Amino acid sequence: MLRITLSIITKNEEAKIKRCLDSANVIVDEIILVDTGSTDNTKQIAIECGAKVYDFPWTGSFADARNYSLEQATGDWILVLDADEYLAPGSADAIKEFISGPPAIGRISQLSNYLDNGEIRYESVPISRLFPKGVYYTGSIHEQVVSDLPHRMTSVTVYHDGYFETDKTGRNIPLLEKELQKDGNNPYLLMQLAREHKNKQDYVQADYFFSQAYLYATKLEGYYPKLVVEYLYNLMKIGKLDTGYTVIQAEQNQDQLSNFPDFHFALGMFYMDYVLSNTAAHIDKLPRIEASFHKCLELGDRKEFGGIIGAGSFLAAYNLGVFYEVIGDHKKAVEYYHFSAEHDYQKAKERLSSLING
């Protein structure tokens, strides 16, 4: 019988640690919790939940703490979670199914909530968190697993709310800057630093790091589609639409991007801004708005790629509704608002009600 160890590192997580451990207790045989200096009740709560708790002085590296926790594990398989995550219902069966197969690095869907212009949005990110004992981590921050095993997608989902209305940039930026001193052309680190500045709404500084990440990327990276999409959104934020148009022209036929709903969603949003920025000069790009959102619906939400929940469904349909309403085709606007509203999207319900009631 294969045994599973939950590996987790913490510091001052008393508000969330019980939720995390309770969600995993139904599937794991052992909980290894490594604490890096809590001054609250995190460790006591973990002990009450059945965890084996170890202290580990913080070294400035998440990989060091992760690897120490992996050294304490006795299970055949390791499940890694953070304190601000918890397993979705049904994950236990999905984990059992995956570990019964050949050894591999299991990628799970991390579903995070965040605020976007006052709306709560959800983003799915595939992350490597389920693997046989013997795998280890590298990297001070945004640490990555090191293994020759193949990476395979699982049907496991974890909910994550660690970045919802919180600010971790003060912790993350110095760690990323330190890593970049060792490898200043690393596109992954550059992208992560760009994202941290974007989260601070320092879009100009984010632009510098996004542009550097885009420059040094080989286009073969698994995160490359996400890099291009986030770079485009940041360019929109600072009004560098000509640069954005150049990026789109270079990337629109890339295989990695052509099947990524979020890329086409970003194109639809970009062309809205592009046409409005100079309608006389760019009016010929108007059909690209419609085509981009239709492509999103054609692809649908693609869990294996991650991305914004709804980019391939209700959000794309809502924006098509807006497009058709603006050009005066109210019949089509109602059709797509109705599609979006059926997915319980509140803004679509409001627009649909407004149009139907005249």
TrEMBL record:
Residues 8-104 form the Glycosyltransferase 2-like domain. The keyword Zinc does not apply. Keywords: Transferase. Pfam families: Glycos_transf_2. InterPro entries: Glyco_trans_2-like, Nucleotide-diphossugar_trans, TPR-like_helical_dom_sf. GO terms for molecular function: transferase activity. Gene3D superfamilies: Spore Coat Polysaccharide Biosynthesis Protein SpsA, Chain A, Tetratricopeptide repeat domain. This is Glycosyltransferase family 2 protein. It comes from Brevibacillus brevis (Bacillus brevis). The lineage of its organism: Bacteria, Bacillati, Bacillota, Bacilli, Bacillales.
